[in-house]
């Protein structure tokens, strides 16, 4: 803890700090141009260890809970809703894949912001902040990666597009 504050102040700072980080990062990322979110770029490309997305189902059972996650894009006028498919053509699928990259990047940045809270929290609260950051963002990252891999499979086999 670098700054000593009263406990109620710390609680308020933690709550509004996370809210501000989540909303600010999400808004900024939604304003970035689409071309920056290439599903084949280093951060977003499918890794061998993902086994074509099967790792997310085998280890995390993503299909059982992904529908429970909120769609943060609904909070912004320019947000791309990813809760359900809005069309079934290849252009839409390509855009959807790019938007999963946008969502994934948002959650990585928010999660990596946890050290900001080390400034005013005790060491044990810093652990809680990290646990919160991971538990609030990792499921979203997993879902974005899982969905992107599935969409890319459909794009690679256009005969499967309805």
How far the N terminus sits from the C terminus, by CA atoms, comes to 56 Å
Uncertain segments are none
Rg, Å, rounded? 18 Å
Taken from the alpha-carbon principal axes, the silhouette is elongated
Largest sheet: none
The overall pLDDT, averaged over residues, is 91
Number of strands: 0
Give the amount of beta strand, in percent: under 5%
Fraction in helix: 55-70%
Order of helices and strands: HHHHH
Structural class: mainly alpha
The number of distinct helices, counting runs of at least 4 residues, comes to 5
Description:
α1 packs antiparallel against α4 (90-112) and α4 (90-112) runs antiparallel to α5 (123-156). With 162 residues, the protein is mostly helical. It has a domain at 16-32 and 70-78 and 90-162. It starts with 6 loop residues before the first helix and ends in a 6-residue tail after the last helix. The chain is built from five helices and no strands. 57% of the residues lie in helices and 0% in strands. It is elongated.
């Amino acid at each position: 803890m670098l700054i000593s504050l009263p406990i109620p102040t710390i609680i308020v700072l933690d709550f509004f700090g996370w809210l501000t980080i989540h909303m600010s990062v999400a808004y900024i990322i939604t304003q970035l141009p689409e071309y920056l979110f290439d599903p084949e770029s280093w951060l977003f490309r499918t890794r061998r260890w993902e086994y074509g997305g099967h790792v997310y189902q085998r280890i995390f059972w993503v299909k059982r809970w992904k529908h429970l996650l909120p769609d943060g894009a609904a909070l912004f006028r320019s947000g791309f809703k990813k809760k359900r498919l809005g069309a079934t053509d290849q252009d839409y699928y390509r855009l959807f894949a790019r938007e999963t990259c946008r969502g994934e990047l948002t959650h990585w940045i928010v999660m990596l912001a946890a050290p900001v809270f080390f400034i005013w929290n005790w060491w044990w609260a810093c652990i809680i902040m990290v646990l919160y950051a991971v538990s609030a963002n990792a499921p979203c990252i997993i879902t974005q990666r899982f969905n992107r891999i599935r969409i890319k499979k459909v794009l690679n086999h256009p005969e499967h597009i309805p």
